Structure formats: C-alpha cells, structure tokens
Amino acid sequence: MSHPNPATKMATATATARKVSGFAQYKALLLKDLRREMRTKEMFVSMLVYAVLVIVVYGVALGFTREGDGLREVSGGLLWAMVVFTSLLGLNRSFSQEKENSCIEGLLLAPMDRGVVFLAKATSNLLFLLIVEVVAVPLFWFFFSGQMPLTHSVALVPVPLLLGSVGIAGVGTLLSTITANTRGKDVLLALLFIPVVFPLLYACVSATTALLVGGDMIDSLVPSLALACGYDVIMILLSWLLYQFVMGE
User: What is the value of pTM for the model shown?
Assistant: First the structure.
C-alpha cells in the first residue's frame, strides 16, 4: 500500500486552506483575539486603568481652573491626548501577544493573505479602544462637568472620536507590527506613531473642540471631519497594501 509523500500532503493542505474564504479567515483571526482578551482581559484592563489615571492627573492639574480660563477651548486636546496615549499602550501589547508560543510563525506559515491578518488585528484594536472610550470619555466629562457646561452640539462628539479611533487602530497596527521585534519598541512605536497620526490628531482635536465650544467654531467642523475621513481612507488602504511586506520582513 503506497503512502503519499510529505510534499503531497503539504500541497493538499495548502490547496484546502486556500479554499477558505478571506472573510472566514478574517473572522477566525478576529474571534481568536476577542476570545483571548475576554479570557485574560490584560489589554482592556491596562488601557482602562491608564485612561483613568490620566483623567485623575488632569483633575489635579486643572482642578483650580474656572470656565473663564478657557478650559473648554483646550478640552478637546486634553481628551485626545488621553485617547492617543491610551491607544499606544494597547498597540504595544496587541502584537507582542502574537510572539508568545511562536504564534507569529504560525501566521507567517499559514497560506492566507497578509492583508486579512492586518484587517483582523486592526479591527480587534479598534474594538478594544472603543470599549475603553465608552467608559473613559464619560468619566472625563464627569470630572470636568462643573468647569465645562455642555453645548447642544456635544452629542456629535462620538463622530470625531470614531473617525480618529479608526485611523489610530489602522496605522497603529502597521507600526506596532514594524516595531514588534525591535529593542525599545515602546519608545520607537511612539516616535513613529505621533508624527504619522499628527494630521488625523489635528483634525479630530479641531472637530472635537468645535463641538464642545460651539458658536463660531462650528464652521471648522466640516473641513476637520473631511480631513479625518480622507486620512482614514488613504492611510488604512496604504497600511493594508504595505502589510504583506512588513509581515515578510
């Protein structure tokens, strides 16, 4: 009785794997990340604790300010500083988990499009960041509600938050993959991340501030949101295209 040689087995396995749709691969990778986080809660808890600590520091630093001191004009920048630095903590942890037990080698050997890996990892990073924002942003307003009376346009604040989070998760996933195997990856990721996302950060801070302050600043809302949307489309598409080369390295 003849037995197929190892090369034949490998070719059969590869052909079978390639029959799996890209969406099925994306779903499997995304569910893997979600299940692991639901089991360990390491990333979510660390990001949430960090966000709360930043809010406490804000409260101490700005506790003696008054509304007339322009706190509302800088509140958008304070909010996004918390989001950016909290996201950096999560991005540093997201891909380092793949290095445990040589999971990254398994992803590299799997016959799948590297773009699918990028989309799954970016989606999981986005979901974790949005969950933290759902908890942290109301705490931010609770701490400063006395100094910052809310305007009618504040209900639209989730729009720039969502646009900014999408761009942060997409670009951050690419950069965290690049820095995963480097020394001092935490510092290197921040050095690469902040300049790259600066246009997005500028647009989101401008849009958020316009919504919080209201009045004449509303005129800057549409251009800022358009800049954020354009950045998301261009940079996520570019990250998706480059991810195959980054994973290959």
Answer: 0.84
